[in-house]
Each structure stands twice: as C-alpha cells, then as structure tokens.
Specification:
Length: 239
C-alpha cells in the first residue's frame, strides 16, 4: 500500500537516539588543552568523556549542544561549529546512538567551569597528556577534532580566538605551533602573517627582558573573509 499522510505509521520504523558532543579547546600555560568531564553513571562510570548528551525533541542540534555544554561544564556563550557525525553500530551500549559533534576554541580565563549532577569532575587536559582511555568512541572524536583544527589553520582565523585583544606575533606563532604540533620558522612566519593583512600594529609595547615587545591586534573587519591565511605545507614554514 502506498503511504500517505493518513496511512503513515511512525511506529513501523526504528528510531535511533541522537546525542551531541562538544569538543572545547583552549590554551593553558602555552599548551593546547581540551575540556573533559568524568562520568558519574553507567555506562563508562568513572571514565573521562567529551561533554554532551541526548537532544530534546523541541530543540535544534546546536541548541542542544549549547545546553549540554552549559549544564555539564558551566561554559556558555561560545561559537560552536559542527564537526562531524559519528554513528558506528555499537558505539554506545545503551542503544543505537548517533552523535553530532561540535568544536570550539575559547579563552580559559573567560569561563568558570564546574561539574554537574551527571559527572564527578570537569577538567582541562593537555592534548599531549590525555587519560589512557576515554568513554564511548570519544578518543576517535577527539582525534578527528584535532585533525580538523589543524587543517582549519590554513584558511581561517580560528587561532585568534585563543588570544587576548593585544598580543605579540611571537605569542601568535606559539599558538600555531601548539595546534600544528610542530615548530615553525620564525622569519617566514613573521613575513607571512604580516603579509596576510590580518593584523593591526599598535603603539603599545610590553616590557620584558631585552627590548620592549611590539603589540598587535586582530583586524575584526576581516574576521568574516574567506581567504587562505597560510598554506603551511606549500610554503614549508616548518623546519
């Protein structure tokens, strides 16, 4: 029988559950960190996991991601970008669960994190020193997020979200090195970032050892431009 609005029966079809997971990165002590929560309940009780949870029927995916992030960690008002959809059979022992993952970069000192009733702890972990095993398939989600983060440095201004309003070019270079996981040639980096037109030089300096350091700011009027900031492999900026 051909289906119609009158004959359609949704109970004829199985309904997988849908969750959202939010991968949040920041820079602490000049090292890339990710925010994880320690699960209080089954499954994976006691394991560290990416913040997230089940969506409500009356909210969009990004609304659900923002709600879960705020409820589980206290982090609010951040720009989230959809990362990928993870749906391997058996990834969640509770049922057939499909997860839509999001990614964001924030300044750690701009947010106060806290644990929820669903977790025993919430903590920033250095990407180079993660727990031995994460809950569910969150090790795969995190690996994918790090890979995407590195690739996006070639054509977006994502790294500037980790900087204060005023910064040195050396601080910007260090952020790129932390995300890329490799050392960059100082001279080439300075040349390319200045040629990009993304920075505005200020008259301010920061005192320290030796000569004062010139401070720069990001040109917000160029934040929405679709452009290639760097082509790291083609330009061979790394040593």
């Amino acid at each position: 029988m051909e289906e119609s609005a009158a004959t359609y029966d949704p109970t004829h079809y199985q309904r997988p559950s849908v969750t959202v997971d939010v991968v949040i990165f920041t820079l602490i002590n000049q090292e890339l960190h990710v925010l994880l929560v320690q699960r209080r309940h089954w499954p994976f009780e006691g394991y560290w996991a990416i913040p997230g949870g089940f969506i409500n029927m009356d909210e969009s995916l990004v609304e659900s991601a923002r709600r879960e992030l705020a409820e589980e960690t206290g982090v609010r008002d951040v720009y989230l970008e959809q990362l990928y959809t993870f749906g391997e059979v058996g990834r969640d022992p509770r049922s057939r669960v499909i997860s839509v993952a999001y990614i964001a970069l924030i300044s750690a000192d701009a947010q106060k994190i806290r644990a929820s009733d669903e977790s025993t702890d919430v903590r920033w972990f250095p990407v180079s020193g993660l727990p031995e095993q994460l809950a569910f398939d969150h090790d795969q989600i995190l690996a994918y997020a790090i890979s995407r983060l590195r690739s996006k440095l070639e054509y977006t201004t994502l790294a500037f979200q980790l900087l204060p309003e005023l910064f040195s070019i050396l601080e910007l270079k260090h952020i790129y090195e932390q995300i890329l996981g490799e050392e960059l040639d100082k001279g080439n980096f300075y040349r390319k970032i200045k040629e990009s037109g993304l920075l505005e030089e200020t008259q301010l300096t920061r005192e320290g050892r030796g000569r004062p350091t010139r401070l720069w700011r990001f040109r917000r009027d160029r934040a929405g431009e679709k452009q290639f900031v760097f082509r790291w492999r083609e330009d061979r900026l790394s040593r």
